[in-house]
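Let us begin with a simple case.
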Amino acid sequence: MFGKGKKLRKVTKIDTLVGQNTELKGDVTFKGGIHVDGVIKGNVISENDSGSSLTLSENGRIEGDVRVPNVVLNGTVIGDVHAIEGIELAANARVKGNVYYNLIEMAMGAEVNGSLVHRSEPMPMQVKQKPVEEKKATSEQQPSQSTSAPKVGTLAGAPSVQ
């Protein structure tokens, strides 16, 4: 009757533990599983690994953005949370920022002071992006006036902004 449709959760091995009396300052990049009972003042980012997961206990706190495929929160995050696979917000979860998710489970009592944004396509996990170099046309090089193919980022038939 009850619980027949529930899926079993994949248990992730915990590779890193941040203890209750520990405070880390700076970005944390990891692969695998991380469990946080303490405080992290910086971004928490997993490498592009779909098996990575973050578990934040009710005593844990993260002051920065979180970019991890699988997230279980029961503590406080002050920053945006990007969970490309799924996020579970337990009863003591507090998020002061936006939550970007593919699948979400939210218990009664969990709080999100921001927006819940559904993303069905994966988002890049990197926080820092490399600048895009643009070629400048000189007097000798004139941009082509070809209309056979639309420019990247424009719709066919839509005017392009220069």
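The second case is a distinct protein. As before, the sequence precedes its structure tokens.
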Amino acid sequence: MLNINSKKTAILWALLCFGLLKPLYAKPVDKQSLLAALTLNLARFTTWPDLVNPILNVCVIGNNVVQASFSNLNVKTINGKQVRFLNRSRLRPLEHCQVIYFGDLKKNLVRQALISIMGQNALTIGEGVEFLKAGGMVSLEQQGGKMQLNINLSAVQQTGLVVSSRILNLATIFEFPANME
């Protein structure tokens, strides 16, 4: 005769085997969705000087997968500002962007875009330390199964943006000069 715990275990195994009970673990998140969510969280902890517009324009430069990862997020507002996603498959004018995510873009095009927005109060986010060296502000990169946050503090300070100390404490800080090439 089976005891009560053995009966419960047998029932759970049967349900799992026949697909009647979903596994109790989280579904893995793909890299682009994670980068999109982190980008919006960085925007939550950033203050823009003189931002009176009730809309926060998040411009996304990259392929369809990158753009879809942002579109799939169900974010309506950040810090009281309505969030609007603007897909920029080509380097269209970026002057109306408060957050610019650079995904899947060649190094020379990244540098060109960063030069074109120099002096603009836009939080620029990309991948890898090379992005920071090109003049970007924040880079996200996967290292050993974890996401590493890197901040080019001199680039952030040059624009007048203020990134929360809570974020700065989590990041590796770099001081790359603005790239004026």
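Residues 12 and 21 are 8 Å apart (CA to CA). The first strand starts at residue 46 and ends at 47.
Keep these points in mind for the review questions at the end of the chapter.
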